[in-house]
Every structure is written in structure tokens, then in C-alpha cells.
Task: structure prediction
Amino acid sequence: MLSSLTEQLRDILPADAILDDPMQLALYGYDGTLYEGMPELVVLPETTEQVAAAVQACDEARLPLVPRGAATSLSGGPVPQRGGVVVALTRMDRILELDYDNQRAVVQPGVINMDLQTALDGRGYLYAPDPASQAVCTIGGNVGENSGGPHCLKYGVTTNHVLGVEMVLADGQVLRTGGKALDWPGYDLTSVIVGSEGTFGIVTEITCRIMPVPQSIVTMLAIFDSLQEASQAVSDIIADGLIPATLEMMDNTMIQAVEKSLKAGYPLDAEAVLIIELDGLQAAMAQQVQNIKAACHRNRVRRFQVAQNEEERDLLWKGRKGAFGAVVNIAPSKLCTDIAVPRTELPAVLKEVMEIGRKWGIPIGNVFHAGDGNLHPQVLYDPRDEDQVTRVMAIDEEITQLAIARGGVLTGEHGIGCSKRKYMPQMFTPQEMLAMWRVKDAFDPEFICNPGKVLPDKDDIEAPGELLLPEGNFASAGPEVAVRNEQGWFQPLDEEAVQKILAVAHREGQPVVLRGAGTKLGPIPEAAQVVSTQRLNRILDYDHENLTITAQCGVNFGQIEEAVSAHEHMLPLRPRFAESCTLGGVVACGEAGPHRLLYGGPRDLVTGIKAALPDGSSLGAILQVTLRTRPRPEAFRTLVLWVENPLQTRPLLAELLDSPLHPSAIELLNPAACRLLGDNDNQWCLLIGLEGFEADVEQMTEQLGSMASERGLGAWDEPNDDYMMLWSRVTDLDPDSVGAPMLKASCPLSATVALAAEIAALDEQVPLRAAP
Result:
């Protein structure tokens, strides 16, 4: 069968794109872990069409498919554990488009991360995810593992910057998800695919977000005599309302390794160093540096220095970026573990990690993203010593279980692969793992895409316990677990009640419509029962130190605001009708509001969801949501520019979006919308929201005034309205007041203003908002 497949592939691919020599095959059987495997064949396609044809041929032969990039993986992801065909994507290395007008890049999966950064640098742009291996790792590999990097504290990981993918499914069909515009209709399959580690298909094209390089970058080095004090300094910096671009830590073992080869200037007797980097506008930079310095001095920092030039900055980063490779100065090899814990658990977890190393007699060095609690203990050993290898594997298991016990997760950015799949039952319930399996089945029903990775085999998952359901049909069973309101809708009394109601409805074939506050509810089918979740309205946990909040689905945003304001925090989601709409409804609909421009939408802020899946096949009902909160900005301001024609704003907006300025929101309102706000009745208005440090807001105001003046657009106004009240009024504009239905469309950035002008021309009396 293999020889027949090989001949079939030779008709599809160039002659040098098929490898079957045993020596060549062995080179594609490993990554950066201890895991090894032997593929039966290796193919090196150059186009999506070649991938699709090759995958279809492998599907017909029922051979496993293992996608592979640069194999920098540290979880065994590209290792062919069950033979099959390795699809090496390194020849698909073209940057297909750099669209600066829309701040998007389209690349093939084999593009090296650093090559994309270099290509963008000439225009003053960057791609934010920057793994330590960025000089060699591929964008496709980053997508597969949902990689992070030092700058993920401020900018997020790969999923926050990938807007669309092209993927070849297991049968050779090509699937496209998302694209340059935001808010694509339907399920957010892009987010499902990012981080799926090649178990759903083979990604062949990626559309990602790019951004202007910050105006100012300041890099600092803080040297500590105590690992615990360095960890506490990290927590204090965040607690002080600062979100640096990076907060990286190295312990003494790693300092020793780095200094032997890279000479980065770290003192050999220090217990820990922090590399802290700020980026943003110049105006408030000095203030932030002083605040960070003060937090470090509260924790007995030995020395605090600021890089004075690009050469000093590069030297500090040279040590951090080269740390993984520098361990060869201490031991022949390393096992790089990867866990993430709540930031406040860092001191205790670091102490226990070192105790684990001492217990097993193996040195462990720590280098990690301290700002978001993502640890990378480096277990140093000699792979030729079988006893050491056995102890190293025991250490890896103990560190992984430590992360779970401390409220953390199995991996922060390196993926599950084959190295951590055995721990999945310790973190997830059988119901949760079976739900993941059903997603896998939907993409890959024949189970040929990267088998043996991420999930335990389905037969090895313990059967979930049964939910005890009320007797009778839906109408009679519902009252046992819920009350009915005046409209006849069921209102479950608790989360288990939601599960039972949905399960009974499924058993009886009864359609159900879920309702929160009703701000997004469309027509209700005549045969459907409505289940309202408004009684599930408790805030369950607000961890102000780790900047997270967990609430039930029926909680409204007014409740959340009240809870977080006591700590000068905020939830940067400002959806329509925020005072009444529920958290579950906003997350289910992916509604962000105008301030997504600065803070992102639900997919960027949600870190966890608990849902009811009554039959295991439906998407079910959201019960709880955990989200990130943010320190409340020091200053808020809204600027308003009045124009006769919306097209007058296009050059200004193009310049603004191409600049290092970061407005929190931009809205263009037509005259009909302005009338609803009680303002000018015959002009368009451009509103720009500004949030941040006082000095930065002042700088943005001054620069925006100059931009407008240079383009002959006159001066900015500042409304008398309270900032939050004004933006609530804008967001809550109600077209129903003029008898118009609400419609929503999304398009690339550069087309927004022109599309708004064309839509408004159809009926000048219909209110319209446009957000570039």
C-alpha cells in the first residue's frame, strides 16, 4: 500500500518533495523532547493544492498525517508516534501579503516568525507574538501550539492575533475561517483551530493582525538576592496598575548558564533577575519607570538599571532569548517543562520546584514569563545516563501535578502533544474530555490527523456519571428545578437545574431558547420553551491580585463594575445596554462594544467557561465565565470632530491608525445618529475615546489636534458629558425609535468609512454608527 501511495504522490509533488530513505525519515522523527518516532513517508508541499491532494491520497490509504514545521516543539507535537506521513511545511514559506492599510498580514505556515518581524520592521510594524525560538520557529507551528512569548503579558498569545486560517481537512477538503474583517458570522472556528496542535487538519494559510511599532520602548534590569522577593515584585508591579509589555525572570542557575556564553551582564551571585520592558507613548514613560522602580525597591532590589541605548537593550534581551540554548554550559541536555499558575502563586511554586529538583538530585533552572505566571523549569541532565532520564521524567510529572494543585494548567504555551496527554484526566472531567473528543470527531472523523496527541484515546476516558433527571415530559419536569415567570418562561434555580432542564428537553425533543436579559433575543419559535438564566446572577470569585473575575451567566455588567471598582479595576467590555445585558449573552454573541479597538473582544478577555452540555452533542448553555480585568486608566477623554461629509475623515483615520497612538474607541456617527444623541442635526461626527495615563492622554489630544488642523478639519470639541455616560449613549443608540431595524456588518478597516457613507445615502433618516 505504501509503495502505491508513494507512486500516487509522485504524480502530485515534485520529485524532491517525497522522502522515503530511512536516513532521511529518521531526521523527521523527533523534536525538542525525549520523544521519537519513525514516519513511513515525508512530503514537502509548496502550495495548498499540493497539501490537499497529498492529504486526500493519505486519507484513501488510511495513513496518519503529522504536520511539522521547524520542529522546535517542546511537547512532542510533530513526532510521528503512530507512523504515517509527515507533512513538512517548511517549503511553504512565503509572505503572501502585507496589508498595512488594514493592519493584516497573510502568510504561509512555513514562514519563520522572525522573518515576518523583519519584513514588517521596514514599515515600522510588528507582529506581537514573539516566542523565544522566534529566529527558527514557524508561524504555522505557533498557530498549532498557540505560542506566546515575552510580550504576551500585554499583547496576548497567538490566538489574539490570528483572524483567519485556511486548513486542509483530513479528507483533502479545504476550509477557510475568518479573514481580514472582524466579526465573521457563525461559530468562531478560527479560535478552535488555533492551539489544536494539528489534530484537526493542516493549516496552509494564516491571516494575522499586525500593529505599528510603539513610539517608545524602555527596558529595565532588576537584580534580586531572593527569588521570592523578585516574584513579589512582579505581583506588586501589576497591583500598582501597570501592565508592562514584558516581565521576564531568570534564577541563578540560568544566570550562570547565560553568562558563560552570552555575557549579558547579569551578576553571577544574584538569585534572580527581572527583565522588564515598557512600551507605548513617550509622555508617561518616565512616570511608569519610577513606579516600577519603587515596586522593586519595596522588595529589596539590589540594583535597578535602565538600558540607555539600543545596544544595552539588545544585550539584556540577548541573555533572555539565548537562555534555553545556554544550558549546554551546565548539562548536555534539558527537559523544558511548561506550566502556568496564577501570578500570586509564583513564590510558593518556585520554592516547591526547587525542592523537587533537590529531592531527585537533578539541577533545575528557571526562566519564564513571570508577568502571566507561565513557568519553564529547565531540568538539566545527561540523556546518556538512564537513571538520570528516569528521574527527569519523575520530576516532570511532579512539576505538572504541582501546577494543577496550585490552580494552574498543564501548559502555558508549549502544548500538550504526546508529553502531557496522560495528565489530561487529572485536569478535566470525563464530560469535558468527551466534549473535546466530539470537536475532534467533527473535524477528523477517521482519526488520522496527528493521532496520539492532546487527548487520551477515547476508550481510555472514564465514563461520565449520569445526571439524575426528573420523570415525565418537559412541561411537568421543569417545575421541579425551576420557577416560571409571568411570561411562562422557566427560570432555573441553580446551575444543575439548567443541566436538568436541557437534558429533559433533549430527551423529549423539546426546542429550547436560552434567554438572559433579552437584549439580543430574536423571534421565539412557536414550539420552543424559553429558559431564562437571570436567577444565575452571582459573582463567584473576584481575584483582584491576579486580575480575574468569575461570574454566573446572569450577572449584568453593573454588578461587575461595582465589584471591581473598589480595587480601581474595570472589565474592559462595554457592550450595548451594559447596565442590563447579561454576561452570558454578551459572551455567547461575542459582543465587544466600541472599546474593542484598545482592549479586544470577548475572545481576548475570556479565560474560562463552564457550560451545560445535556446530551454531549449540542453547544449547550453558558453557566459561568471567567474573564480578565484591567487596572482602571488614570485619565479618560472624548474628542469630537464635526464634518459635512464622512469621506473627509478618511485621511485622518488612515494616519491615526498607522501611528503609534492607541485610541480606546473610534465611532463615526451620521446626522440621524447625532440627532438621537441630541447633538448637531446636519453633520457627521467622529468621536475618539482616549484612555490611559494622564500624560499619554494629553499627548494624544495634542497630536490629534495637529493631525486635524493639517488636514483642514478644524478643532476637536470635548463633550460636557461624563465619559462613561457618553459612550453608553453612543453604544445604546436605538434605531427602533425611528422605526428602523438594527443591522450589523463588518468589513476591513480601510473600507469602513466609504461603506458607512454608501449605507447612509440609502436613507439619511436611519441612524448609523461605524467603527474603523
